[in-house]
Fold this sequence. Notes:
By secondary structure, the chain is an alpha+beta fold. The chain is 31% helix and 20% strand.
Amino acid sequence: ELYLFKIHNKDFGEKSKGTQNTHTLYFLNLFSQHNLTHIKLRLAGNAEVFYRKSSTQRKEEQRKFIRPIVKNKRFTEDKYFFHIPIKIGASVNSISETKFNRTLNEKLRQSACLIIGIDRGEKHLAYYSVINQKGEIVDQASLNKINDVDYCEKLRTREKERLEQRKSWKAISQIKDLKRGYISQVIHKLSELVIKHNAIIVFEDLNMRFKEVRGGIERSAYQQLEKALIEKFGYLVFKDKDPLEAGGVLNGYQLSAPFESFEKMGKQNGVIFYTNPEYTSTTDPVTGWRQHIYIKSDATDNEALKVFTEKIGIGWSDDKQSYTFSYDQKDFWEDSPARKWVLYANAPRLERYRNDAGYWTTRETNSNDLLRELFEVWDFDQPEGDISEQIAMMYEEGKLKGEKIISEKSQRFFKALRYALNLTQQIRNSDSIRYVYERDAQGDIVEDSQGKMVVKEIGENVDFIASPVVPFFTTPNPYTKENLCGLVIENGDANGAYNIARKGIMMLERIKQTQANPDLYISKSDWDEWLMKDIKQK
């Protein structure tokens, strides 16, 4: 017997009016006259026919529409599927990553291409910043909302539903499906940006220490995004382009080499680069300041004394009405260039604390006020004088022993001083709306009349940068006046994307300076040195 099948998909339907699917375009152009004489697409063999028997009963749902809606209709009917592997070009999958990068870098050395930095946000699922090689911002935006769909809000709603349903697998699978759809939309958006701006794109390096952030894309989803983007850039086409036009199905862009594994991936795959994300969202975009001073939480009083009297000068500024911390960054980072800083303690800050209900939340504070209280409680003779000298004298006289009540807590002097210093260095301040279980007085989860666990909303949407160094770059916030210093960076996620893009400038500089195998790893000291040079040039 001979069976004849009609090949059909939605793009072949009589009512189809939209742009055809990319795979439909590949299939149709496979047999085009131009492809037969200038082969770009070819059959790869191993075509297969699959038979899928119906796996669910037909269930109709009557909504506001006239005709009934069939839930999961595609699984209620027996189906045959025809899979045809297609090979794209003769060379697309044959070139190695090293050779491809070398070829591309030759073009980058002569190019004034732009740089796109991508940051996994705390307030945003992801954020991008497009800059030129002078560090000027050309374009930037949150990737929370794409094509009028607010994925961040949808994920937040799904997360609340997941908690209410006792973390059911159905709710979890819905979240996974939503994230897959989101990743697909992000890839399309980034593809458009790369072509529009003739740009390279810089991601956080997943092979380095990966920090999970509140609200951002987690590691597994981020890897899916990067892998899918590499595969997309292997032969990038746009459905709305003529097949022979640049970016059409018969004339796609090759912007990356074939993906092998994350373990083998270096700092570059074509136009996609990877960099160390440390300090990118917490580096002052105007002065280049970042946190340099770290004092261990278990440091002894004697160890803390040496830092606060030998490496840091604590004083008072009448002009700014603020306590100050003065230091040289080289005293804390030996590999960094010498550079002196003065930190002012009067910038607005958010501190985390546990409220009466037992939930962690945030409140506005100011390290300037904390320091004033600290020095008054410990009976400093001149609380607005040379504090470092007084600390040394009082410690020698044994006047800084024991604990006293500071901010309603019993604390040792150096523990409270270390906290105030850390708060002063906390350039980024943020909080997010999140969901937790409502609990009764005994700590048990409260349920409603239907047996659902009661979920409550805590926190607020706030995220701002407030630099402690002159000229005090400050993004919009509820507590003080903004001071953007001519930049258009409006939150911590935007700052992260901007500084990741600036590391892309460093990578391009190294490519232009080195003919073969440029070192694209950027250490913290490299970052500090480049920032100092960049500030001097401006």
